[in-house]
Prior knowledge:
By secondary structure, the chain is mainly beta. The protein contains no helices and 10 strands.
Amino acid sequence: MKHHNPSLLPPTASVPSRPEGDLKPVPIRFEFRDPTALSVAVAGTFNDWDPKKHVLNKNGDGVWAREAKLNPGQHEYCMVVDGHWMPDPVARESRPNPFGGRNSVLIVTAPHNGTPSSSSSVKK
């Protein structure tokens, strides 16, 4: 397994104001920092665990990023770096998965007063 020393940024949300109680998808930005990675994707409950559906794009600073629209609620996910599945190192919460590893947990909340909210993390 290729060793990565990633520096990840937590997923962030940015949406316009919506009426309270409206549970439309919320844009979430996934970011992953690893200048040596050849490919990075995110797979989770929100995309049927298919890393091909959310491939991140690399910028010149070695930061991989992708926006995804997720419904409010709790989502489990993993980063897929060069084909290796791993929890998101910046997630605040994770859970064991059936494969002996861990899934990161992302909680997406509907915007309140025009301010979206999301939280994630990995317990170290």
